[in-house]
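Postdoc handover notes: sequence design on the structure in folder B. Input tokens:
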């Protein structure tokens, strides 16, 4: 507790001392506490309050008090705001004095006098300091001067503390953004040592912040494979261009070099030895002096993007191959038939026309699949033309009849209960589903075997299945096979025709019917694809 020193010389020292103590403080609550304590001592008061202006609500609120109880603060807030509005109306002094007296009396019967001092900074009313006394004494102009300069010091300190608080809040906001960013963030100093990383960075790289911070970045960002230069090489080549402090901001913005970020992508080696496809954008941060202070790296997981790109490439080569084969056959047979110098017998002509027709059919199916797939993509789903009496058992029987002609290695079994019900659905699309499953069953059982097509039903739904005794699908591939353009990488898929669209279409169509599709498979023993569709 401070004590009142002897007046006047030592009091000035005292004032200086507390001014220093106050202005050195940045914690607002502590500043207010000290200002209040010193003021109460200066005026030999019993009670002191500091109210600060809250610009958001445009009201004054008590932020520090001494000599009164917590319960008295709400009522005091009201009286204070009434007092402030009287002040702002420029009403005469007597009314103000009256109001202050009433305020004093409302706090305690013993309080008979109040001295109020505004806290003003750069003409901004920051708050109000009031000291209440239990005796009435005149305040000399010298006292007032000292008090005012003291209040000014306090206002500066309050202003500093408020600014500091704002900066602190801003900093907290930035750290929250940094920490919860879905992209990985790494902050480097000018020597490329790691200063900070966020949570997403930890998850993406397997490095904890504790292990990574303080390390040179190339100890942590290790590329398994990289497209182009890494950060180290870029810096060695002169990136980033040093900011010229003589340039204006506008010139800087126009200068390509300054705004340049550096992008690198590749396969990052995680700490646990796994790899991850990432793209990192590095941005330089310069100080006022034009010197490079930090480099901020933003890591994005581009696994899906790369996979999509790869699939697109595979798709383009498969589709062009798939299109070229039938076109080449059609062209070959047609030009042979139309050769002016040859006369073909009827058998050859019929056979050749048969091949042309078959290949044209294959083209039609392929083009239909492509169109349906791009339509699904564009419309985010399949649009159904519903009929309410689609018989999957009948569609299956006729699909089997069609396929039977194409193979002599496979035996077909069709197995439906005799009362298998009709369902609401799009017959054309469901036929496409059955055809696709059946074609796959044949394609992926090159040694032949039995293909069983059948169904079951209950009150709510019907289930349809196609079972083969073919090569099967490894478990790790099961989550992928319904993706667009996805083909399992094995010997058979490199030699059989396909675009990786079939099961994607099948799943999209089943989904559109409110159904689900699944597969059970055992490599070398065969697969069963089954889907369930609701009956209403
Ligand atoms: P594709 O045009 O390659 O046949 P699909 O989308 O129909 O494309 O099938 C995707 C992949 O799933 C195929 O490449 C194949 O590897 C695998 N697959 C589909 N059906 C079967 C099956 N009955 N048996 C084994 N593998 C299958």
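Designed sequence:
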């Amino acid at each position: 507790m401070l004590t009142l020193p002897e007046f006047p010389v030592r009091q000035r020292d005292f004032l200086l001392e507390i001014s220093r103590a106050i202005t050195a403080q940045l914690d607002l609550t502590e500043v207010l506490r000290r200002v209040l304590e010193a003021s109460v001592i200066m005026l030999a008061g019993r009670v002191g309050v500091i109210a600060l202006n809250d610009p958001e609500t445009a009201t004054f609120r008590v932020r520090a008090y001494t000599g009164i109880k917590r319960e008295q603060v709400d009522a005091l807030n009201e009286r204070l705001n009434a007092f402030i509005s009287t002040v702002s109306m420029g009403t005469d002094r007597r009314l103000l004095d009256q109001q202050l007296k009433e305020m004093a009396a409302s706090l305690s019967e013993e309080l008979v006098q109040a001295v109020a001092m505004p806290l003003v900074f750069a003409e901004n009313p920051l708050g109000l300091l009031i000291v209440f006394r239990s005796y009435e004494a005149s305040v000399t102009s010298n006292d007032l001067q000292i008090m005012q300069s003291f209040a000014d010091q306090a206002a500066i300190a309050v202003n500093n503390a408020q600014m500091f608080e704002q900066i602190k809040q801003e900093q907290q906001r930035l750290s929250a953004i940094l920490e919860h960013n879905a992209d990985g963030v790494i902050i480097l100093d000018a020597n490329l040592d790691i200063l900070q990383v966020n949570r997403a960075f930890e998850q993406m790289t397997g490095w904890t912040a504790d292990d990574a911070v303080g390390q040179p970045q190339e100890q942590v960002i290790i590329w398994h494979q990289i497209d182009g230069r890494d950060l180290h090489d870029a810096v060695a080549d002169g990136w980033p261009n040093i900011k010229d402090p003589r340039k204006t901001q506008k010139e800087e913005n126009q200068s390509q070099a300054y705004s340049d970020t550096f992008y690198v992508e590749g396969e990052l080696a995680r700490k646990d030895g796994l790899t991850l496809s990432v793209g990192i954008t590095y941005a330089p941060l310069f100080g006022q002096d034009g010197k490079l202070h930090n480099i901020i790296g933003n890591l994005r997981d581009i696994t899906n993007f790369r996979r999509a790109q790869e699939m697109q490439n595979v798709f383009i080569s498969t589709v062009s191959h798939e299109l070229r084969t039938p076109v080449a056959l059609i062209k070959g047979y047609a030009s042979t038939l139309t050769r002016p110098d040859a006369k073909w017998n009827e058998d050859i002509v019929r056979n050749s026309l048969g091949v042309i027709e078959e290949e044209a059919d294959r083209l039609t199916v392929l083009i239909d699949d492509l169109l349906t797939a791009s339509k699904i993509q564009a419309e985010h789903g399949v649009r159904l033309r519903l009929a309410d009496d689609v018989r999957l058992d009948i569609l299956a029987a006729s699909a089997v009849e069609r396929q039977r002609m194409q193979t002599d290695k496979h035996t077909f079994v069709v197995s439906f209960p005799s009362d298998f019900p009709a369902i609401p659905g799009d017959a054309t699309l469901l036929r496409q589903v059955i055809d696709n499953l059946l074609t796959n069953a044949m394609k992926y059982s090159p040694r032949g075997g039995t293909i069983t097509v059948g169904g079951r039903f209950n009150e709510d739904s019907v289930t349809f299945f196609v079972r083969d005794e073919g090569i099967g699908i490894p478990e790790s591939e099961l989550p992928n096979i319904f993706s667009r353009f996805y083909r399992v990488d094995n010997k058979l898929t490199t030699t059989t025709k396909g675009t990786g669209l079939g099961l994607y279409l099948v799943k999209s169509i089943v989904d559109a019917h409110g159904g689900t599709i699944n597969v059970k498979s055992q490599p070398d023993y065969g697969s069963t694809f089954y889907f369930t569709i609701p009956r209403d």
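Context for whoever picks this up: Residues 1-5 have pLDDT under 50 and may be disordered. Don't rerun without checking with the PI first.
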